[in-house]
Amino acid sequence: MIQLSVVVPIYNEIESIPILAEKLHQSLSRLKMTYEVVLVDDGSTDGSWDKLIEQSQRFPHFKLIRFRRNFGQTAAMSAGFRESIGDIVVTLDADLQNDPDDIPLLLEKMTDSVDVVSGWRKDRKDTFINRRLPSILANGLISHITGVHLHDYGCTLKAYRREVIKNVHLYGEMHRFIPALASWVGGQVVEVPVQHHSRQFGKTKYGISRTVRVVLDLMTVKFLLRYSKGPIQIFGKIGLFFLIPGVLMIFGMIIANLALDSMLIKRPFWIMTAFMLIFSGIQFISMGLLAEIQIRTYHESQDKPIYVIRDRVKSPEPT
Questions:
Q1: Which pTM does this prediction carry?
Q2: CA-CA to 318 of 20 to 30 Å: which in 41, 128, 132, 229?
Q3: What is the pLDDT of residue 31?
């Protein structure tokens, strides 16, 4: 039985890998629990995979996964969740900005009533304009929309209970919304300040341009959190918002023409506006009905991953 799984997505971090492997081994070997380290190579092109194999021969309990191409951090984390077997799953970045020595702190906060412990980079060592400022704005927006208030959704260093994370399905850039999705399935979420270090090697893979994708995925998360079980509730409301005024305008024109002998019904503006409103209303209601059918197909369809694994490697069994 494995009690702890540590999942690390990796993309072009060849310089950081030896130091990361050493730090992980030192931190985890001091814990009084069984563990595994799942390192997911997200299609690296700088020799990271060979470096990972080298480190897996040095340290026990390493499990390596290699994608056929770059599928993104969300896919890498999803693969790590699927391939790991620990009762508790901890995630962290491979760029050495997260500190493996904080893992015991996360586990300490993982009491019987807590299902997710989220790291908070309280003293963040990143540039303000293109990293910290967008993060502050995004965290406020995400907290407001999801109702799960955290200071730092973007911190990868988090701990999850297996029974919560197995019910969370990830797509797009949704890895940062895992605490909100976990809360949606009944998980209790807490936050704890953790260390944050300046990047030692290479360049960051993320910039301010990523904000657009985050906002679009946030809209998806909001829909999932509130309307995934009944899409007609949102599309139907929008449809009625257009449909009712359009029908009232039609009846108004008919009454005006019959009772008041008005030429209102012969004016193209009123006719086109009324019928456009009715058409828009019917279209949104139809979208809601189609979404109802599709959401049921989604829940009943085959469980297909969003990535393709090329290789798997395990550390030699300790003697």
A1: 0.77
A2: 41
A3: 92
